[in-house]
Amino acid sequence: MTHDNSWPVATKFMAIGATKIHDPKQIVMTLDHDVQNKTEKNLKKYTQIEEFAKAQGVDFYPAGRGIGHQIMVEEGYAWPGTMAVASDSHSNMYGGVACLGTPVVRTDAAAIWATGRTWWQIPPIARVNFRGILPVGVTGKDVIVALCGLFNNDEVLNHAIEFTGDGHTMRSLPVDDRLAIANMTTEWGALSGLFPIDDVLKGWLRYKATEATSQTTDRFNHQRLDDLFSAPLTADKGATYAKELYLDLSTLSPYVSGPNSVKVATPLNELEGQSIPINKAYLVSCTNSRRSDLAAAAKVFRNAATTSSDGTITPARIAPGVEFYIAAASLPEQKAAEEQGDWQVLLAAGAQALPSGCGPCIGLGTGLLEPGEVGISASNRNFKGRMGSTEAKAYLGSPEVVAASALKGSLGGPGWYERPEGWEGVVGGEGDGVREEERMISIEDALDRLVREAEEAVLEGERAVGGVGDKGEGEQGQGGKEEVEGGLTEILPGFPEKVEGEILWCDADNVNTDAIYPGKYTYDDAFSSDPAKMAGVVMENYDKGFGNVAREGDILVSGFNFGCGSSREQAATAILAKKIPLVVAGSFGNIFGRNSINNALMGVEVPRLVERLRATFSSGNTSTTTTGTAGTAPITEPEGNRQSLDSPPPAPMATKSEGKGGLTVRTGWTFTWDVRRSRVVVREGEGGEVWEQKVGELPPNVQSIIARGGLEGWVRGEIAGT
Question: Region Disordered: what ranges (predicted)?
C-alpha cells in the first residue's frame, strides 16, 4: 500500500525506466494524509495518482474514503497468514488480524512495483505473553500505552513480536483492540506485532464475509475462510525466541502516555489528581477511530446527559474552551457509527467533524496544537511538534479518556474502572510469566526442551574447547556476520574501500526522523526534490544551527536508536544532500537503516565511540523515565530526551573540545572505516589516543545496492538484466 506518497513513488518508478507495474493485484493506492488540503498543487497530485492507478489497473481509494491502513484491513488486503507492507511506519497494524505487516519506504515501493521483489534482513523475534483478562474500563489502547512505558529500555527495538496467551485471555481482546495494540508496536520500537489466528479472529472474519460487498467478495468469502481455517499458520512447537516478556492484563488500569513521549506512561488516576487542563481533544487516526471507539466515546457523553423533572434530556457538552475533533478511520466506520447514533451524539456534544484521514495526527489540516496548549489524543504518536507547535504538550489515551477529558476540561476518565481488591501493582516482566507450579508441559514440548538444552550444552562445550561461536570484540555494521579474523572482505566495483572524515557529534539517543527531516517538508514534493533545500533544513528539529556547523565530508555520529519514528526516506537523503557520506551511531532505527541502504548512505554501529564521545564532550547529565510513580509530582518529558522518541534538544553539552560546544559539536576527532578489513579507526584529536575496532562485514547484497547508487540503481540493473 502506498498513500499520498504514491506519486513520488510513481516518479521514482518511471525514473528508473519502469513502465508497467509487475503485478497490479499486488498494489493498493489510497489517499489519506493531506486530505484537507484543497490547494491546486495538492489536488493536482491527487489527480495524478488516481490517473496512474487507473492506467496501471491498481485498486485505488480516493481522499475521504479512509486511512490506508484501515482500508487494508477492512477490505481484506491484509490477510491472515500472509505478509503485507506499506510505505508508512504503522503497517504493523495488520498484525492485529494475523497478517505480518511491516513498513517499507518509497524506494522499496518502487522496487516492488517494478519487480515484485525487495529485500529484508530477518529480525530477532520476541514473544509477548498475555495473562489474565482486561478489567472493565481498560482497553487495548491502555495495554500498548502501558507496554511502551513499562518496557521502555528498547527491549523490543527492531524485533518482530508475536503476541500470545491462553484462550481465556485472548478472548478478552477483540480485533479492534488488537489493531490498536499492533498499530502502536511501531512506537514501542518493533518492526511488527503479530496476533494469532484464533477464535476471536475467526469470528470477526466470518462476520466480514457475511457482510461483504460485491467489491470485497473475492477477498472476504466463506470458501476462502474454510481454506484458511483448515491449516492456519502457527508458531512451531518448541520455537525459541530472542526475548520473552509477559504482562498480566488483569492488573492493568487506564493509562496515559506523555507528555510528548510514548516512553512515559502513567496510570490515569495519578494524573487526574493533578487537574491538568486541556485545550484540545482528538478522536482520530488509524489507531482508535473505528466504530467501537466512536461508540465508547459517545457512551461517555450519553452517561453524562441530564434528565429534567419533565423528562427532557439535555445532552452533555464538552467543557468551555475545549476543542474536540473527530475523524473516523474510514467512511464505512463513520457510517456504522451514524447508524448506531454515536456520531450524532459526539456532534451534539460539540465535536468538530473532520474528513476521514490522518489530519491532526500528523500535523496537517485543522485543529493543530498551538504554543502553550495541551492536547489529549487517541492517536499513536505524541512526539514534540508532531501535532502542532513544539511548545505544546501532547498526551495519548483511549477513546474513553479522550472523551471524558473533553467533557471535564482536564485529563480524566469516565470512572468505569474499579481497582480489584488486593491489587498490588502491574504484574509483568521478562519470561513467559507462567509460574512453575502452574506449568503444564506435553511430552512433545518436554522432548523439544531436552533437545534444546542438549544442543546448548554441546555448543558451550565447543566454545570452551575451541572457541567456536565466540562473538568477538566487535560490533555489527548495517548487516551481515562478522568475518573470520584476519580475512578480507571482497569489495565490489563502485564500493569505496575506505571512508574517512572529521567526526561531527550530535549527542542524543532516539533522534527520530522528524528531528532529521521535519515533517512539514515531507509532503512538499518540490521542496524534497531539491537537494540544496533539503541540505538547508537537515537536522533542523534537532539543532537549527546544524547547517552552519556541518561541512562536506563530515562523519555524523549520534547516540542509540538513531532514525527511529516515521518511515520518511528524506531523513537519509537529506543527510546525503548535506554531502555527509557516513552516519555512525550506537544503533539505528531499523527503518532508517533500511532507508540508508536504499539511498546509498552508509552507516555503521560503534557503541564504544558513542561512549568515548560522551565521556569527553557531554556534561554527564543522566535521564530517567517515569512510569506509574507520579503521585503529586508533575509528569515531565524525559530529561535530555535520552529515553524518549521526541525531538527536542538533548542534555546540555560540555565545552571541552577547543572551547567549542552546542548541540552539534565539531570534535576534531577523525573516523576511518576500512571496509575491506571490516575495521574502524578513531583518532581522538591531534595527538590523542588512536584505537580501532572490528565491525560487521557488509554482505554482498548491501554492497551491490550501495555500489549501484541505491536500490533504484539495483532495480535499473534488474530491468536491464545486468
Answer: 617-663
| 3-state SS string for 481-521 | CCCCCCCCCCCCCCCCCEEEEEEEEECCCCCEHHHHCCHHH
Distance separating alpha carbons of residues 330 and 644, to the nearest angstrom:
31
List 506's β-bridge partners, or say none.
558, 664
- Residues 47/60, Cβ–Cβ less than 8 Å: no
Amino acid at 452: R
Report H helices in 116-164: 140-150
Give the number of other CB atoms < 10 A from CB of residue 228. Answer: 19
CA distance 513 to 363: 15
**C-alpha atoms less than 13 angstroms from C-alpha of 30 in its C-beta half-sphere:** 25
Contact 514, 538 (CB under 8 A): no
Is-above-0.70 flag for pTM? yes
Length reported for the chain: 722
Q: Report the pLDDT value the prediction gives residue 460, as an integer from 0 to 100.
A: 66
Structural contact between residues 314 and 301, judged by C-beta atoms closer than 8 angstroms: no
* Spatial distance between the Cα atoms of 165 and 155, rounded to a whole number of angstroms: 19
Average pLDDT, the chain: 87
Look up residue 365 and give its DSSP letter. S
The alpha helices in 578-645, defined as continuous H runs, are 590-598, 607-617
Strand order across the 160-165 sheet: 192-194, 160-165, 125-131, 243-248, 428-430
DSSP 93: G
597 vs 419: CA distance, rounded Å: 49
Contact of 355 with 93, CB cutoff 8 Å: no
